[in-house]
Write a structure and sequence with these properties.
With 354 residues, the protein is mainly β. It has 3 domains: 85 residues, Beta Complex (Metal Binding Protein, Guanine Nucleotide Exchange Factor, Chain A); 133 residues, no CATH class; 116 residues, no CATH class. The protein has 6 helices and 23 strands.
């Protein structure tokens, strides 16, 4: 362990104000005894006594980190009401960035992730980015920045399918951050209503060795289009089913490649958007940051392309604009990947963002 000093000061003082943390309308922590830790030039952090937190609502995750000054840290997710504050999985920084080869000694340090629906709400979200080499951590020169993304438009032919209870939301493993868009009530009200979503996903794979995975509902089989889609929907392993029985079932529209849910603002209802009546082999198109190819960067550029121009107002905006002489941050997509790491973890070759 290292001791704080003039080159890396740490001060701890009592926080003068009451601190309450509310998730899903439920108080998960309430204290008048929080401590404020100020470390070097980093943003101050509040520490809350466990005795003043509802630890029964917290679940320890597998992630951990180490600070040479403060020691080891564990990470938790918290579920309360119909909401979950969650830690995101690690993001591999493995995309080629030719503009970083000289500075870093290798090229594969880029990373990219689509903008989660939950932060495409027309509001500014701040990004703090840090780099660490295992012994020291420093905030990047151009941080913080902020991004603002317009809410996505629902598919033209979509119907809304109610998740009728918290148990159904849990069974489908819905993430309020990545899967749920915040749309105006008027937009949601205009969508036609379909059948409620099943109580849980029913997944099947044939016993003949064919790789296709099917979601079964309403007497039909709907193709889950890829392993990436399985992951996006948080699906578990499908059950092995006689291939003849699967082939005898009518084939419906492909299951949406990624989740697209909406939350009714004035009445806490959660709907999945779906196109169940589309012809077989088609289905709901997943929303991208600006309506372009979802396999591209979230700003529409090809993966690995350095510093695209800022997106138009119809998609996402990164602010403040880069100043002359600033180091490249990899455009909007890379900046948002840092934003995602702010609430999760980014792990590769000692790089960490918080």
């Amino acid at each position: 362990m290292k001791l704080p000093g003039p080159d890396h000061p740490i001060t701890i003082t009592p926080n003068k104000k009451r601190v309450r943390i509310i998730v899903g309308g439920q108080t998960v922590a309430d204290t008048a005894h929080a401590l404020r830790l100020q470390e070097a030039s980093y943003p101050a952090v509040l520490y809350i006594p466990r005795a003043d937190a509802r630890m029964d609502l917290f679940t320890k995750t597998s992630n951990a980190s180490h600070c040479p000054y403060k020691g080891d840290a564990s990470y938790y997710s918290v579920a309360a009401g119909a909401k979950t504050a969650e830690e995101l999985p690690g993001i591999a920084a493995s995309v080629t960035r030719s503009d970083l080869c000289k500075q870093l000694g290798s090229c594969d340090h880029g990373f990219d992730v689509p903008v989660p629906l939950g932060v495409r709400d027309g509001k500014a979200h701040q990004v703090f980015a840090y780099g660490a080499n295992g012994t020291a951590t420093a905030q990047l020169t151009n941080a913080p920045k902020s991004f603002t993304c317009a809410p996505p438009a629902p598919p033209a032919t979509a119907v809304k399918r109610l998740l009728p209870s918290a148990a159904v939301v849990t069974a489908w493993k819905i993430s309020m951050l990545t899967d749920v868009a915040r749309l105006a009530d008027a937009v949601i009200n205009a969508l036609p209503k379909g059948d409620d979503l099943p109580a849980s996903p029913d997944l099947a794979i044939g016993d003949d060795g064919a790789p296709e995975v099917w979601l079964l509902e309403g007497g039909k089989r709907r193709h889950v289009v890829s392993p990436a889609s399985m992951s996006a929907w948080h699906f578990g392993a499908p059950k092995k089913t006689p291939a003849a029985a699967l082939k005898a079932m009518p084939q419906g529209a492909d299951w949406a490649a990624t989740p697209f849910l909406v939350e009714q603002g004035t009445t806490p209802m959660l709907y999945a958007l779906d196109t169940p009546d589309a012809p077989p082999g088609t289905g709901t198109t997943p929303p991208s940051a600006n309506g372009t190819d979802p396999s591209a960067h979230s700003d529409g550029t090809a993966v690995g392309a350095p510093d695209p121009a800022p997106p138009s107002a119809g998609g996402c905006q990164l602010a403040p604009a880069r100043r002359a002489g600033d180091a490249p941050m990899g455009g909007f997509a890379a900046a948002f990947a840092l934003a995602l790491a702010c609430v999760g973890a980014l792990r590769r070759r000692g790089l960490r963002a918080t």
